[in-house]
Amino acid sequence: MNPSADDDPTAVDPVAERFHFLVNAPALFNAVVTALEWDLFGFLAKHPGASFEELTAFTGVPAHSARVLLHAVCTTGLLERHADGGYHNARAAEELLVPDGPDSWRHILTGWKEIYYPAFTRMSEALAAGTNTALAAHPGDEPTLYRRLSHNPELEGVFHRSMSAFTLKSLDALVECEEFATVRHLLDVGGGDGTTSERLTTRHPQLRSTIFDIPSVSELAAARRGAGEPGSGPIRLHPGDLFSDPFPAGADAVLFSHVLEIFSGEQITELLAKAHSVLPPGGRVFVYGYNVSDDETRGWYSARLSLYLNVLASGQGMAYPARDYEQWTLRAGFDSVRTLTGYPYEHGLTIGTKR
Hints:
By secondary structure, the chain is an alpha/beta fold.
């Protein structure tokens, strides 16, 4: 009989191995973001095999500081030091950290460093209190991060660049969904700076979109693309409050992309019912976002999002399982409710049709 892995004294417990990485991860995460800020990955993409002296000269930091940072990033495997002493990007770094477009991980990780992760030091306090106590670090008296960021336009810009970049990582599958081929007028609720609507209207030329979001976010969207006047193109902006203001009429589909997870089940049902009320018969609702696994035990991105929402952003909500969205969509009056799965970064798309 062959001995089991449990009987092998040399076997590595993968959970224990993950634990040892996890407890060092906060420092290593910040080391990777620092390497991004110093453009080390970009430099090595152009100069593979660069020496320590060349990297130190490029960054302009003290040699000892460069040595410490390079050691830290090499331990993650994202940088490699070859036998000749030259440094190289790992394949994953070339794919993930070198590109510098609007979907760059540089934007995503900067937002997490500046906004998300400082708040997690107050996790025990916030979860015990059942509210987002970490919000106290941001000026204002509004109950959510999204509204308080309007007091700090620079940080609000960092936040929305980060959000838009991560949205783009998971957006292609949504944009290619055949359901949008028959939509004529989409109401993009909580559409932010318009990243999603922009991609949808480009992919589906027959489609026009109205973005409904809070005024400060609509101002960001207008500044980004010079939109906002009625009839000025396929994308229009309609500022308002999701709960207190009526949804604009005239759409034959409503999209909630990365927005409903912010709220409680009761609030989500209320927003879905508002969508139902403005849609014509046959109109559809689309709910796109993170779906935790059915047993709620798997999903790194879903776990991070859920903690962020409760500790900082809104004090409630989570990356709900698909079955919850399906129940709330039915409760709001929609029929033929179903969820499409297998999207990137633990995403799902729940669709309902007004009878």
